[in-house]
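Handout, tutorial session.
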Amino acid sequence: MSAVRLRNLTVHNYDKLDMELAYMYLKTGLNDFKLFVEAVDEVLRKWE
């Protein structure tokens, strides 16, 4: 599950959110955030 999908589920369907699935994602699926930070870092380094 992507970070965007998790966000959409929590914001728009919070009453139907499978907490076990959300917890599993939070433990294993944080790579989206790591990739985002790396991409931002790369852009900022080019501006230096």
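The second record follows below. Compare its token runs with those of the first.
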Amino acid sequence: MNWASWSEFLAMGGQGRFVWGAFGFALAVVVAELVQLRLRRANLERAAVAAGEVVDETKK
């Protein structure tokens, strides 16, 4: 496709809200996954320290 302006590009031929909504949703899911991974790792490290295990700080 060829767009004459940025507004036409963003409108995506009238389908922009679906296209950009899908991109936004996918971005939100990826960000949520990254946040959950960080929280899960922090919880596991806390549990390991509480159990007396050695946590290797060099692997962060």
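Points raised in discussion: The chain has a mean pLDDT of 89.
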